[in-house]
Amino acid sequence: MSPDDPQAEIARLIAEIEHHNRLYYDQAEPEVSDAEYDALYRRLETLEADFPLFADPNSPTRRVGGRPSEGFEQIRHPMPMLSIDDLFEIPAEELDKIEAKAGARPPKEQELVDFYRRLQKGLGVERIPVTIEPKIDGVAVSLLYRGGRLDYAATRGDGTTGDVITANVRTIKSIPMTLPEAAGAPAILEVRGEIFMPGKAFAKMNEERDEAGLPTFANPRNATAGTLKLLDPREVAARPLDFIAHGIGVVEGGEIGTITDFHALLDRVGIRKNEPLWTAETLEDVLAAVRRLDEERHALPYGTDGAVIKVIDRDAQQQLGFTSRAPRWAAAYKYPPEQKETDLLAITVQVGRTGKLTPVAELAPVLVSGTTVRRATLHNESFIQERGIGIGDTVLIQKAGEIIPEVIKVVVKRGDGIPFLMQAHLGGVCPVCSGPIERRETESGSKVEKRVVVTHFCVNFECPAQVASRMRQFVSRKALDIEGIGTTVAEKLVERGLIQSPLELFEIPETILATLNLGTEESPRIFGEKNAAKILQARERAVKEMPLARWLFAMGISQVGESSARELSRLHRSFGELSRSPILAELRTLKTGESKEKNPFLAPYEIASEVGPIVAASVLDFFQSAAGAAVLGRLAELGIDPQSDNFGPKPSEDLGGADKPLVGKTFVITGTLSAPRDDIAARILSAGGKVSGSVSKNTHYLLAGEGGGSKLDKALTLGVAVIGEAELEGLLAGGSAAEEA
Fold first, then answer.
1. Which of 147, 283, 349, 604 is deepest in the core (most CB within 10 A)?
2. Where is pLDDT greater, at 62 or 351?
3. Which one of 35, 62, 89 terminates a domain?
4. What is the average pLDDT value for the chain, to the nearest integer?
5. pLDDT > 70: what percent of the chain?
6. Active site members
7. Are residues 238 and 317 in the same domain?
8. What is the structure's pLDDT at 608?
9. Within a domain: 607
């Protein structure tokens, strides 16, 4: 049916799709599933075809990918890096309607049939050799080799210009930096393919992130996109990325006439090609290959959501040509997500290593995407209530990104209808330690449509489920920097009952540490005296030298990161003062959108953006809880009283001196610099300055390297001084920086 106002509906769909594009491409944090996005996109395409008068030339249906990212150098592709048109399976209910009206039932792959017939018409022949291969759910990239050496790697970007991600790509072991001379590669060879994250590695990484209190990724594709946007290649190297080639761009100095020739070249130079791969010359063979791939794809080590069909001969490709966003000689047939019905037998609750309580659906076993599913995450209380999920219901499940089982909706309501409430379900206590649990609310969604998400945490600092995780942060380099306590040592200390709280690390005798068995009873591995001595030295340094900000970060308080810990330390002298802070008490009363600068009590303190009502409430709630009181008490018993090393609540006063030349100055860092941003930020912080993540009227300096992006534009608009590394060195030495860059 056509809408009453097609022009308004087209405008609404464009705005909604643009919103989802920003989340998907720029932030790697989608709000909707691929299937939901595809439905919106197809709806817009249909309306634009039915009402061409109202079609917008800047519509997302006429553009490719997302914008280039801030912080990366951009490069223009030697030939456009286009997208690919999608073909969809016709739903059964639509097939029923067509059959009832026309008297014949078309195949569910009718859009694929129409595509092949367009190829036949465009080339004027019946038999057209094509390839059929998996559509990998990853991030499209271009690798340009010049003289057999990798010259650069770039993302697709907007199809014309992409981000240069060469440093990140060098960390991916499956991508060769040089091609063997004997392979006979062209002088210039552009290989296009997909960077992705294997399914098992993705699941393991998500589990580790959840345990560490970090946000998890929705699916492998978004994990990959988020990883490639990281500016520090060392962080990228820690993520399990892989690469498969599936296309060719510019070629100079060698003849590649067909896709078959290209695949042979990939084999010679040692670049992994997309497999399994079928060739077909008739429509019947194409349909057979697409159906076979649908059966086999669940065994592949990466996520797939379709089959890509390409004309083999490159001359034929040129004859068929391109639209503004995609080639006419290729298309992707999208498989619908496999969904199954099953009964929800019970809801259990897992305690993560950060204390987060996650409800889990215990299901009647059912085969989904190639494996038997017995459990599925229910995320949080809000997720359950929004979908009306109850014990005993028949639910519909699928695998997000074909990896993580999730409950989509209730199909048949058989439960008692009582809403799930975490507090009531658990009797108000943690299922592991019987300690108190805390209800937290956060806002989620777009600016237009916000929703409140309710999650729960065990706040017992000595909960056994959390000790190893808390220990890792407690001793990390950015916290107390106690060298020698890694994941294995932390877990063994907990496993052998030597500690029940990170603070107990300061009470373990050296002799006990030295004899700690890191192995098994059958194959012991003793920690040793030298390692034990190192820990004693490090913990003594932590007591005597580590400032309040480091200890505050070490506590792992919700919402308190490195930057907010430094700002809290600037505003308070000690833990005791922080626990009863009138500044935080006033700050937590601010309403959404209310300015700190206009509050008479808060204005003189010039509080940075990293500390707002949410952080204030989290810190006060922690110290006013039984767990927080226990921490303060244990610190007092141990004689530990960390003091601020950057105290100065009124930056306008001269509290710095020669050793703190940046007191009262707020910096924002952007672009590529000579050192990692963390290292530069540490130097600014040690000199008394503040480092913020966004430019505002309160920013004093924008430190800009190559590829400053939107932060540079905003700084120039607001009149913020833009400086380089040379000017920063002058400021650190106690001089002044030029007001212009």
1. 283
2. 351
3. 62
4. 84
5. 89
6. 135
7. yes
8. 78
9. yes
DSSP string, 667-702: EEEESB-SS-HHHHHHHHHHTT-EEESS--TT--EE
In one letter, which amino acid is 175? I
For residue 398, tell me if it sits in a domain. Answer: yes
Please check whether residue 116 lies inside any domain of the structure. no
CATH number at residue 552: 1.10.150
Q: Is the predicted pLDDT of residue 739 greater than 70, yes or no?
A: no
Residue 484 has a pLDDT of: 75
220-228 helix and 199-211 helix, angle to the nearest 10 degrees: 70
Lowest mean pLDDT among 351-365, 474-488, 496-510: 474-488
Residues 198 and 239 in one domain: yes
Question: Do 274 and 221 reside in the same domain of the chain?
Answer: yes
SS (H, E, C) 503-528: HHHHHCCHHHHHCCECCCCCCCCECC
Q: CB under 8 Å to 80, separation ≥6 — which residues?
A: 64, 159, 160, 322
Query: What was the pLDDT predicted at 395?
Result: 92
Domain of residue 482 covers 467-545
Which residues 6+ apart lie within 8 Å of 293 measured at CB?
A: 132, 133, 134, 276, 278, 307
The residue that leads in pLDDT, 140 or 467, is: 140
- Verify that 266 and 162 share a domain, yes or no: yes
pTM over 0.70: no
pLDDT digits (tens, 9 = 90+) for 191-237: 999 999 988 888 888 777 665 545 677 778 888 888 888 877 878 88
Whether 108 is covered by a domain: the verdict is no
Task: Specify the CATH number for the domain of residue 13.
Answer: 1.10.287.610
Give yes or no for a contact between 539 and 482, defined as CB atoms under 8 angstroms apart. Answer: yes
Residue showing tokens 């489920």: 465
Is the sign of the CA dihedral 351, 355, 357, 360 positive or negative? Answer: negative
**pLDDT tens string 332-365:** 999 887 788 999 999 999 887 668 898 999 999 9
Residue finishing a domain among 500, 526, 545: 545
Half-sphere exposure of residue 112: CA atoms within 13 angstroms, side-chain side: 27
Query: What b/e readout covers 373-404, taking b as 16+ CB neighbours within 10 angstroms?
Result: beebbbbbbbbbeeeebbbebebebbbbbbbb
Find where tokens 């290959």 sit: 289
- CA 330 to CA 311: how far, in whole Å? 7
Closest CA to 227 of 214, 211, 245, 212: 214
> How far apart are the C-alpha atoms of 690 and 569, rounded to whole Å?
12
- pLDDT-above-90 percentage for the chain: 29
Tokens of 387: 């979908």
Q: Are residues 353 and 391 in the same domain?
A: yes
